Structure formats: structure tokens, C-alpha cells
Amino acid sequence: MLPIAPEGRPYLAQVAVLVALAHFLFGIWALPTWLLLIAAVVMFRDMPRKTPPSPLAVVSPVDAVVTEVQECHDPFLDRRTTKVTLQQRRFGEFNVHSPIEGKFQQYWAGGQGQEVAETEGRFAIWLQTDEKEDVVMATDRRRWPHRLSILTHAGERLGQGRRCGFLGFWRPVELYLPDNARVDVKPGQTVLAGVNVIATLLHKKEPTGGSW
């Protein structure tokens, strides 16, 4: 049986009960209800992913298509950044994976009245590597259906490519990267969560001592 995301198990159980009840009441005429069960399994599947052995890589957090790469302002950390915009694939998984190995610093819930107007209505999490490189992942929480969950807390350490929540369905996702990161994807490219590399972090060299 396909591995199922924890967020989807209650829904899958409810659909299974409905299918069983329909068969009890209507017999063979209830066969079309199996389509609901199959659809639920597909939407909430959680297949194992193999993350590439590259500690400086930023892997895709979702199954998606790259729609835009641009330099812009990061409204969450108030910095210059490179933003990669992803659109979740229609038939991909809707799980979210940590793009880097690092510590979960903070999240923004996207409620009204946030300090920065640009962040209103947007859900975002801030991750930081041991080298103090910051990556922010954001999405619009106002889009229906409102099904978002992040299974981690501030201060918790996440492994690169580790599944950390559910971000369905069909949402745009924005990655705000350090401005010195090397982007390794182009618009139109398809990426898999926890597998394909979005960018590579290029650590800034520390100034050397000495005088001239």
C-alpha cells in the first residue's frame, strides 16, 4: 500500500467508511465511489525521496514547476534576495520538505495587521543554516483549500529534504534565497520535493587579516 501523509489519514479513513457504506446500501452500483478513495490516496501519498549528497544545495520544498527567478526584496527578513517561484504540480505530491539543513527560526501565520503589509495573508517559515545563511519559504494562505500544516517548532533542527508538513493543494511557493546563492533552475523546469536542487549556497569569504 502507498505510504500516506499523516495529514491525510483521517480523510482517507472517512472516505473508506463512505465507500463501505455505499457498497452495503447499493451493492455493485456503488463501484464509482472507489474513484473517491483512489483520488484521496493519490492526493495524500507520501513516497520516499532520496536527497542528493550536497550539503550546500537548496532542494525543492515541493513537487512543482519553476515559474519565475528574480532578484527582489525579501519582505520577511528585509533584505536583498533572489526569489524562486514554484507552482505545485497538479498531479504531484503536496507534502513540503525542508529545502536546507538548518534550524527552524520563525514562522509567519499571515494574519491581518502584520507589521509588514507585503506579508499579510501569506504563510512563511524561516530556516537558517549553521553558517547563518537564511532561506525563507512562503505561500499565500488565502488560497482555497486552506490546508496548511508545518510539523516543526521554532528552534528545531531540520535535515535537508526532510518532510516537515503538508502544503496542498496547487499552491504557488516562493523561496527567498541569500543574494549570493547560485540558482540552478530555469522557468519551465519541473522539480521534485527533496530531490532536485533549486540553488547552491555560496558562502561569503571571511576577510583575511594583515596590512598592506
From TrEMBL:
Keywords from the UniProt entry: Cell membrane, Lipid biosynthesis, Lipid metabolism, Membrane, Phospholipid biosynthesis, Phospholipid metabolism, Pyruvate, Transmembrane, Transmembrane helix, Zymogen
Record-linked InterPro entries: PSD-A
Transmembrane segments: 12-44
Tagged with keyword Lipid biosynthesis: yes
GO process annotations (BP): phospholipid biosynthetic process
PANTHER family: ARCHAETIDYLSERINE DECARBOXYLASE PROENZYME-RELATED
Name the record gives this protein: Phosphatidylserine decarboxylase
Lineage: Bacteria, Pseudomonadati, Pseudomonadota, Gammaproteobacteria, Chromatiales
